[in-house]
Amino acid sequence: MFITFEGPDGSGKTTQVQKIVHTLMEEGYDVVTTREPGGTEISNQVREVIMNLRNKNMFPRTEILLFCSARAQLVEEVIRPALLTGKIVISDRYSDSTLAYQGFGHGFDQQTLKQLLNFATGSLWPDLTFLLDISAEKGLQRRISNKVEWNRMDDYQLAFHQRVRDGYKSLVEESPDRWEVIDADQAENLIQDEIKRRIHIRLDKFLREISIGEKK
Ligand code: TYD
Angle at the Cα of 14 (from 182 to 147), degrees rounded to 5? Predict the structure, then answer.
């Protein structure tokens, strides 16, 4: 099963991903975890180019292709092989980030981006995606107060990050069955409890469907 976590900057995704992975592993699930952009040696080198504040004159089209190239490597090297051996893969960000940030944020056409994403990933989409929903303003406040290392993406205007947040909501409306939306403006442990509850419901359903499929 392929599970991804999405959300605006400062939504607390990374902490929540680490915690749920830890829990699932303790429960005996075979979990592979990764993050985007990055997750392989080559993808991390691409990440450095995307994030570096020195690259302020990077054009959005360049940015899109770099995100896609980092993802192509990650899918081939890590995600698909893990899924093929029956593991649970949990990724901190994936293709929906491109649709939200480069699509809604920069204003690129969704259909064109989906074609590019399908090319980059061999049309691999998650079975389940969590949206940790928070306003762009609160996300920004959190990043400032947590003194998170500032990167080139953080440097985009607040209006860009507002479009990203609204964009995520449109993506949820487009395919509601794939998404679980969680209010990320609450205490860390409450968010984690909610993720845990919903992930178990989805995992049980997924595993049941697989075993029915195998019996047929
Ligand atoms: P990162 O420091 O990993 O932050 P976060 O914890 O919010 O994931 O930075 C990743 C940044 O790159 C973040 O601003 C989102 C952005 N991004 C895109 O714009 N498009 C993408 O396809 C991906 C994967 C990330």
Answer: 110
By C-alpha distance, which of 59, 63, 123, 124 is closest to 91?
A: 124
For 23-64, what is each residue's pLDDT tens digit?
999 999 999 999 999 999 999 999 999 999 999 999 999 999
Ligand 1 site-directed mutation target among 93, 121, 129, 138, most atoms within 8 Å of CB: 93
Kindly give the distance from the C-alpha atom of residue 11 to the centroid of ligand 1, in angstroms, as a whole number. Answer: 11
CATH 1.10.3080.10 fits 2-215, yes or no: no
Smallest CA-to-CA distance from 116 within 80, 60, 71, 85 is with: 71
Residue 114: the pLDDT is 98
Number of helices (H) and strands (E) in the chain: give both, helices first. Answer: 9, 5
